[in-house]
Amino acid sequence: VPEFPSNIIHIENLPTSIHSKFTNGIKTNSQIRTDLTIQLIAILKYIYLIGAIFTFVLLIRNIISILLLIRKSTIIKKDGYQLVISDKDIPSFAFARSVIISKGDYDAYISSILPHEKAHIRLNHFYDLMFLELVKVFHWFNPAIYGIIRNINDIHEFQADAYTLHSGIDASQYQLLLIKKCVGSKRFALANSFNHCQIKKRITMMNKQKNSRAWRWKVATFLPMLALLLMAFGKRGDNVPENRIVKKEKLQINSVSKTSQKQQGSTNRTIQIKSEGNYIGNKLCSLKEIATKGKDWQNASNDWILLEIEQSIPYTRVDEVWLTLTNAGVYHVTQSKAGSDEIIYPAGDVSSLAKFTEGKWNDWFRNELSQLLNEKYNSIEYSIYYGFIIDKNGKVRDSRIIRPSEYEDINTTYKKILAKIPDWKPALRNGKAVSVFYTEMRIQRPKKIEK
After folding, report:
1. Which residue has the higher pLDDT, 302 or 306?
2. 253 CB-side CA count, 13 A
């Protein structure tokens, strides 16, 4: 029977060999028994090392499989990332500074999938996953690390979905695409796959209203519970000399005053766009400083950032600041003219999206495009980024091209189409009609010529 004194497995009376001998002419068999002692700590060390080596080999195998996939695919260099088009039927995913997409998805869904995967790259999600995979090598036995990796992947997808909707993509169409693509391969542990995460969770997060009344009640319930926990488990202090109490109280007062000053300084989240430059407070700021400040604000909380625009400022200046914040991963950005009460929200950050009233928006736009654009442009590749404001009455105004294509004829054609957009059904936020800033990128690829 094994015994376990002092972390040692001690196995007694283990038979090893049988010897025959003659005693007084009689053959007798004697069984020689020996004891085997095994260190329990040594066994655990070997098991741990085997698990760590196996986990590390799996990690290296996953990296090599993705690199081989990239090597055998078509690579298109883009601004800040590379687009990898694979002939294999794989789910689209982001890996480091690369977006890997199948040929079928590239032809059919590039306008919806690409903003999602670019969000993973801009938010540096790959480095989160790489760090956690390295931690898993050393903690392969710990079930908590697998739960953490799963939850981090969910958070990554929620962030990328929010970024995609803020870029102006129709939420219902995007959710239908998620449902269609929900079943896919799970071979790429270090990749942020477009198919990742439970579909119900992602759609719920997209439709969830921020700062809801239910959320406030949850916070109100949590605070009394926290106070009760502090009272129940708080440690009573011993008698302290009076002079030490006075010093401690002074220190607390000083720290509270500094904290309140810091909080008061962070509540004013306004970027003023004036003719002489862009200001935060009374300080003239560069675009780089605006991006840094915007990320600091967003890391502190998800409160709105307001672009306060001077009346005479052209929208090229506004788009410059807005794109700077968007490229830095700052999403909750509203706009307003100085002296006006109208707040213009991002198109996807409302409870009910604005709806096109004359059929499907994409069908209407393609029809207008085919009537105005020459046939020769069907054989060239271009991309164009435009936007417009749908006010609380459903009227379209301030339509413009944010990032033009390299062809002047195409830019002129798009300006004509943007100028004749009919009315929309206005967006709703908390049951009230609001103005929204709608943006969209259109990518034209050459049509295939059948032999």
Report:
1. 306
2. 6
Two structure tokens written together for 242: 């009076």
- Determine the angle formed by the axes of helices 143-166 and 171-180, rounding to 10 degrees: 140
Residue 38 pairs with which residues in a beta bridge?
9
Q: Does the predicted TM-score (pTM) go above 0.90?
A: no
Residue 95 in tokens: 């890996």
Bridge partners of 345, per DSSP, are 436
pLDDT at 207: 67
The pLDDT tens digits for 337-389 are 888 889 999 987 788 889 999 889 988 988 888 888 877 777 788 889 899 99
- 190 contacts: CB under 8 Å, gap ≥ 6: 59, 62, 63, 66, 95, 126, 129, 130, 133
CA nearest to 82, candidates 117, 130, 113: 117
Largest CA distance in the chain: 124
pLDDT of residue 350: 84
Looking at residue 48, its amino acid is: Y
Task: Give dist(CA 265, CA 67) in Å, integer.
Answer: 47
- The encoded tokens of residue 156 equal 């990554």
- Gap between the Cα atoms of 431 and 281, Å rounded: 33
pLDDT band at 254 (very low <50, low <70, confident <90, very high): very low
Judged on CB neighbours under 10 Å (0-12, 13-18, 19+), 323 is middle
Neighbouring residues of 118: CB distance < 8 A, sequence distance ≥ 6: 81, 94, 99
Q: Are strands 355-356 and 344-346 parallel, antiparallel or unpaired?
A: unpaired
Please state, in angstroms and rounded to a whole number, the distance separating the CA atoms of residues 74 and 35: 65
Distance, CA of 331 to CA of 345 (rounded, Å): 11
Amino acid at site 217:
W
Residue whose tokens read 């700052």: 330
**Residues ≥6 apart with Cβ < 8 Å to 1:** 12
Contact 140, 132 (CB under 8 A): no
